[in-house]
Write a structure and sequence with these properties.
The strands form six sheets. This protein has a ten-stranded mixed sheet, sandwiched between helices. The chain starts with a strand and ends with a strand. The longest helix has 18 residues. 30% of the residues lie in helices and 22% in strands. It is an alpha/beta fold. The protein contains eleven helices and 22 strands. The chain binds guanosine-5'-diphosphate (GDP), 6-O-phosphoryl inosine monophosphate (IMO) and magnesium ion. The site of guanosine-5'-diphosphate has 23 residues, from helix 1 and strand 3.
Length: 428
């Protein structure tokens, strides 16, 4: 039976999903995003050019590939228009190859305002949201009052927009948040709202479809479909370090609900992870480094957010967390990214367990957010050379240890941001 393959992040996002989706795209007819919104920033580099996509799937640079924004994704029309305009400047026109689910929800300007108001009210406990309106939009989706892309054509769209906006304004007032202090994309709210409405008009030229039928029909016809995740398992709303998570289901199950495909239709599950760990925003990070080694990871890896530009927190690879992510997603193939970042490290460490409440454990407990968890670290000798086409012996030892720990083969090792900088590994 024909199947759909999934590609998702196993850590706290920014693992390099965009690069791998783009690199795999020649093998696929369709690439479909299944959750998240413009909180995502997926970077793709080739021929000396660099693109960062937020809403548009990363299969877009292959002309033979159709791209779908699934029902589980949320869309800010203004950010979407900016993305399309940026691609157009580079001569990339994707209108005929991009389909949008009628059922994907719209991020309206007051969702972003409410996100800012919520974060401000949390003070030092803030989530560290990207402030793209993600939490409030998914909240409205589950509260059954959200606006969907297909609603744009409805006669009462404006009335429904005003109703939702007024609900938000009341919530914002309750939080004592002063709207006049807010800027969105460097614009005062009213100006941003006008731009957003222009972008809604712009959005109308795209093809809105019943994407669940489209995807299932394509699978049945034998088309090769790749589902692209955003964020990462440790930011998943159910299994991430709650409440320091995003508001969508970033695991394999999210692909089923975010595209309308049954679990029995899932084929390969590509799990993407960095050779170390990073995290943006607040929340537990047991292997975090606060010393010069952490600084070196940030500097070598250019660990600054693709969406917000914030410095990413850095630390050693966390194997209990990786194993947890592999379990939740049913990963069949692991892909290790950014190995080159540690090319000049004499020593590399990984966490194999945690010290938690005076015990040693190898799982993520419910209260990881409130308890101190210190990592139990194992040391490896660095490979101390530039990776090029071949995997050095010390790196291979590191890889084999990870494979044995999590029980899944690493089939691809990435050693640079360019789409060509990948080494495939055979499964043993
Ligand atoms: P995504 O959100 O998972 O798509 O990842 P991001 O694009 O936010 O962050 C990954 C960053 O690492 C981007 O700047 C990529 O260009 C870069 N990158 C991806 N793979 C590699 C790699 O193997 N080595 C290096 N040095 N950079 C990489
Ligand atoms: P990609 O797809 C890294 C983080 C934010 C914050 C938390 C909640 O590029 O891997 P939100 O804006 O969703 O309310 O923020 O989640 N976050 C990400 N971190 N990569 C991402 O996406 C992220 N999307 C959200 O920093 O801690
Ligand atoms: Mg990213």
């Amino acid at each position: 039976m024909a199947k759909i393959d999934l590609l998702l992040g196993l850590q706290w996002g920014d693992e390099g999903k965009g690069k791998v989706v783009d690199a795999l795209t020649p093998k696929y007819d369709i690439v479909a995003r299944f959750q998240g919104g413009p909180n995502a920033g997926h970077t793709i580099e080739f021929d000396g050019k660099k693109f960062v996509l937020h809403t548009i799937p990363s299969g877009i640079f292959n002309e033979g590939c159709v791209n779908v924004i699934g029902n589980g994704v949320i869309i800010d029309a203004k950010i979407f228009k900016d993305e399309i305009d940026t691609l157009a400047v580079s001569g990339i026109d994707i209108k005929d190859r991009l389909f949008i689910s009628n059922k994907s929800h719209l991020i309206i300007p007051t969702h972003r305002a409410l996100d800012a108001a919520n974060e401000k009210a949390l003070q030092k406990n803030k989530i560290g949201s990207t402030l793209k309106g993600i939490g409030p939009t998914y909240t409205d989706k589950t509260a059954r009052r959200g606006l969907r892309v297909g609603d744009i054509a409805a006669d009462d769209f404006m009335a429904r927009y005003e109703r939702l906006k007024n609900t938000h304004l009341a919530q914002i007032k309750n939080l004592d948040f002063d709207m006049s202090t807010l800027t969105l994309d460097n614009m005062p709210f009213e100006q941003y709202e006008q731009e957003w409405f222009k972008a809604i008009e712009f959005l109308k030229q795209f093809q809105f479809i019943e994407s669940e039928y489209f995807i299932n029909k394509s699978i049945a016809e034998g088309k090769r479909v790749l589902a692209e995740g955003a964020q990462g398992t440790l930011l998943d709303v159910d299994f991430g370090s709650y409440p320091f998570v995003t508001s969508s289901s970033a695991i394999a199950a999210g692909a089923c609900s975010g595209l309308g495909v049954a679990p029995s239709k899932i084929g390969k599950v590509y799990g993407i992870f960095k050779a170390y760990c990073t995290r943006v925003g607040t929340g537990p990070f047991p292997t975090e480094l606060f010393d010069e080694v952490g600084e070196k990871l940030r500097k070598n890896g250019h660990e600054f957010g693709s969406t917000t530009g914030r410095a990413r927190r850095t630390g050693w690879l966390d194997l209990p967390a990786l194993k947890y992510a592999v379990m939740l997603n049913g990963v069949t193939d692991l892909m290790m990214m950014k190995s080159d970042v540690m090319d000049d490290f004499e020593e590399i460490q990984v966490a194999t367990a945690y010290k938690y409440k005076n015990e040693e454990i190898d799982f993520l407990p419910f209260d990881a957010c409130t308890q101190t968890m210190t990592p139990v670290l194992k040391s490896f000798k660095g490979w101390n050379q530039k990776i090029e086409k071949d995997i050095p012996a010390e790196l291979n030892d590191y890889i084999e240890f990870i494979e044995n720990y999590v029980g899944v083969p690493i089939t691809l090792v990435s050693y640079g941001p360019d789409r060509s900088e990948c080494i495939e590994r055979a499964k043993n």
